[in-house]
Specification:
Length: about 140
């Protein structure tokens, strides 16, 4: 039986994962679900905006480089929409982030290098970061 983490209002804590790599998306989904989170996934920027508005997740993990609409463009759309502006967005990147200051100014709550999730502690470092961001959401 799968354990699910409950949020502030007793509902399951939902994360929107936006990643165009099938391999990384599947591995990250599995790690998040094993940790008790409900996961909704998108593989491009347009789908990310639509699913964010539809599901209102507790957190969005957003790849920087995406087809159709880039991660930074998705971030700006979400942060300029009153319905989604309060959702924390953590940027996922495979490259060292040169634009970190601008993306934080645009509303990103942090960054995670995707290579970190595949090396060393595996997904544990990503899960620790997710747990830190969602700390205000009590686990029951």
């Amino acid at each position: 039986m799968e354990m699910l983490i409950l949020g502030r209002r007793g509902g399951v804590v939902k994360i929107l994962l936006v990643e165009d790599s099938k391999f990384l998306r599947a591995a990250t989904e599995q790690a998040l679900r094993t940790a008790g989170y409900a996961v909704v996934s998108a593989n491009d920027g347009d789908e990310a905006v639509r699913l964010a508005r539809e599901h209102m997740p507790a957190l969005i993990l957003l790849d920087v480089m995406l087809p159709k609409m880039s991660g930074p463009d998705v971030l700006r759309v979400l942060k300029n929409d009153p319905a989604t502006t309060a959702i924390p967005v953590m940027m996922l990147t495979g490259l060292s982030q040169k634009n970190a200051k601008q993306l934080e100014k645009d509303g990103a709550c942090g960054f995670f290098e995707k290579s970190d999730s595949m090396l060393g502690n595996g997904p544990q470092s990503l899960l620790a970061t997710v747990d830190r961001i969602l700390k205000p959401v009590p686990r029951q």
